[in-house]
Amino acid sequence: MLNWLLLNPLYSVALIVAVMTAICIVPYWMIYRIWKPDFSDDIQEMAMNVGFRIGTLHALILALIFSSSQEQYQTARENIAAEVIVLSEVAYEIAEMRDEQLTSTLEKLHQYVDALQEDDASAVDIYNIRTSDIIFHKAAHISREIYSELLSIETEDAQQKITLNRIVSKLDEAFSLRSDRLASAARGVSDLFWVLAIVGFVFVLLLFLVVRFSWFSAIFVGFYGCYTGLILFFIVEMNNPYIGLSSIDLSTVSEAFDRIEDLTQ
């Protein structure tokens, strides 16, 4: 269900607006239509005071989690951009050495970028990334082969040795960036946050229901529900940076792929 919501963001937004509006307005209307309570002004004032305080705490929790999710999302974007640049630099370094021993390494790097796109596309299934999955991916296997080949190369002079060390260092950086990227996608939000978010929303809504019903007050309550629902949806969006409305396009890795392909021709 959650995958469908993320893959169909426009329908999801419309559905959230409709559902949250109904959740807020329908019970409000039914209570005053059927039960017809008559709360005193003192009770309404107390409910508004308590609702204001709980609402403030609820908004603060949402703001903190939203800010954390946005930072995580931005980090994922920066990591994939840096990864593309580093992989391209590695390809150029290898090509410039013009060493026959590195021909197969360049081809393997080409295969690595190809496998990277396939693996990461399958690895980002929502909240389903496990360390074991990352370790046994095809890209991870090829990366170990690349390391093995580089370490077995016999350098002829100091310059070649320095260049080779620089290549290994940059590969370390690229592999580390990928690991951080996938780990970030797997982190998600604590279940405790969702409990607090839902409980806070329900508490504030119940306190709003103490106010005498009118269509104007019902519209305001509906706005509160819609806004809360949209905030929660976008928190989920940013905690799954490779799927949905704000997804990071993994095809940017193809920039490195194209450069490596040109070099191997």
Structure overview:
About 3% of the residues have low confidence. This protein is 81% helix and 0% strand. It is rod-shaped. The chain has 265 residues and is an all-alpha fold. The longest helix is centred in the first third of the chain and has 57 residues. Helix 4 packs antiparallel against helix 10.
Assess the beta-strand content as a share of residues: under 5%
Radius of gyration, CA atoms, in whole angstroms: 27 Å
Average predicted local confidence, pLDDT: 79
Run of helices and strands: HHHHHHHHHH
Ends distance = 45 Å
Report the strand count.
0
Largest sheet descriptor = none
Low-confidence stretches: 126-133
Summarize the SSE layout with pairings.
Layout: H1 2-7, H2 9-35, H3 41-97, H4 103-123, H5 131-135, H6 138-152, H7 158-187, H8 191-208, H9 215-238, H10 253-264
Helix pairs in contact: 2-9, 3-4, 3-7, 3-8, 3-9, 3-10, 4-6, 4-10, 8-9
